[in-house]
Amino acid sequence: MKTILILLPLLAGALLTGCEQASSDDKPMPDARYVRSQVDPARLIRGRDLFWKNCTVCHGLNAEGDADWKKRDKEGKYPAPPLNGTGHAWHHPKKALVYTIKSGTKAIGGNMPAWKDRLTDEEIESIILWFQSKWPDEQYRVWTRRDKESKKTK
After folding, report:
1. How far is CA 40 from CA 30, 35, 36, in A?
2. For residue 153, how many C-alpha atoms fall within 13 Å in the half-sphere facing its CB?
3. Phi/psi class of residue 124: alpha, beta or left (left: φ > 0; alpha: ψ in -120 to 50)?
4. Cα distances (Å, whole numbers) of residue 41 to 47, 86, 109, 120, 136
């Protein structure tokens, strides 16, 4: 017991020293639940309502996407993917998500129309916040890290 009491201050000092030497890039990402808890609930509701009004016809009421989203349809185009964390949207940084919503996917062989003339930047961001709220915490944490990294490579 005495050994533990002697070693405890040394261990605490070593941990604190290590923390002081870490750069801001080495700090762990905040927990996904914490980050999402900082979002105004009214903004999530607005994002949900905008999604339901504009996106459900293709992406489904709960952002579940088309069941065969990985297979080309009869026209050779991919159906709407899920945005609820079961698809690949969480692999893309926010800039790419915004770009895809604004520009659509018709130029790259998809069916999604461009929304840049119908939705404001704030509305697009609210929609993204809403469908991200459906992602599992681990996916959101990985996405946050990837998004942060994508901003460094400008």
Report:
1. 17, 11, 9
2. 7
3. alpha
4. 10, 23, 35, 19, 18
Place of tokens 């309502």: 49
Structure tokens at 154: 């400008």
Identify which of 101, 93, 98, 106 has the alpha carbon closest to the alpha carbon of residue 147: 93
**Whole-structure pTM over 0.90, yes or no?**
no
CA dihedral sign of residues 76, 80, 83, 84: negative
Residue in this structure with the two tokens 């062989």, named with its chain if needed: 109
- In tens digits, what is the pLDDT along the chain, a chain of 154 residues? 444 334 334 433 433 333 333 334 445 555 566 667 788 889 989 999 999 999 999 999 999 999 999 999 999 998 999 999 999 899 999 999 999 999 999 998 889 999 999 999 999 999 999 999 999 988 998 999 999 999 886 5
Cβ density class 4-23: b for 16+ within 10 Å, e for less: eeeeeeeeeeeeeeeeeeee
**E-state strands within 13-92:** none
